Amino acid sequence: MSVTLLLLGFFAFLAGFIDAVVGGGGLIQLPAMLLLLPGVPVPTILGTGKLSSVTGTLAALRRYLTGPDAVPLRWRTVGLAALTAGAFAFLGAKAVSHLNKELVRPLVLGLLVVMAIYTLWRKDFGSLHAPRLHGRREMAMGVLLGAVLGFYDGFFGPGMGSLLLFAFVGLFGYDFLSASASAKLVNVATNLTALAYFASTGQVLYHVALPMAVCNVLGSTLGARLALKRGTGFVRVLFLLIVSAFILKLGWETFGF
């Protein structure tokens, strides 16, 4: 096995671990692939990375939903959000060629800053699972969330997992563990939509993606297990760390600081 593939496997494992807890695995995996696979077209790197990440996300979701410490999911709401997000992710991907996605970057940067400040300020944010929406209102909010963030994921993408996590906590009243599990289901839908497109156009390097997928699954399983063991406090701290990293990354890309 080449050194490049070993390094990609390591970064896929790390990305899977982070993504299983709070999202944001792409912050680690994508730059590593761009660095270690020079000359490979960006769409092919994206397609290869999607196969790796979607398998890890599925593994994390399975861990959250099974076993004696399983996280209960509000299936009607989250499932509806996932289906909507998958459809709108495809529309977002189609819109990339018609809209200037660079305009989105400063808006997302500002939103991430607000998320970080609010989470720091509200010490009890995400500590209790107390759903505040019910019935049709909850389902309608699920469709809206799926449409907006699904389109965003297909169109731009960075920070999708963290945005989902914050939305499920802030809008729906979930605790961080339930929000993380719910975000995984929505992420699976959007990733599968993107992967279907990349695979159908021959933009997946399977000899790279499959070993990375194995490593991503291992990292995701470990991350989900640790999140369930350590509880919402651990997820909250890691959420703040990942959001801070996104703020620095997007800030550098937007303003060069």
TrEMBL record:
Which family is it part of? Answer: Belongs to the 4-toluene sulfonate uptake permease (TSUP) (TC 2.A.102) family.
Q: Where are the transmembrane segments?
A: 73-91, 103-121, 142-174, 194-222, 234-252
Q: What are the record keywords, sorted?
A: Cell membrane, Membrane, Transmembrane, Transmembrane helix, Transport
Question: InterPro entries, per this entry?
Answer: TM_pro_TauE-like (IPR002781), TSUP (IPR052017)
**Its topology with respect to the membrane?**
Multi-pass membrane protein
From what organism does this protein derive? Answer: Hymenobacter saemangeumensis
Q: Where in the cell is it found?
A: Cell membrane
> Which protein, by its recorded name, is this?
Probable membrane transporter protein
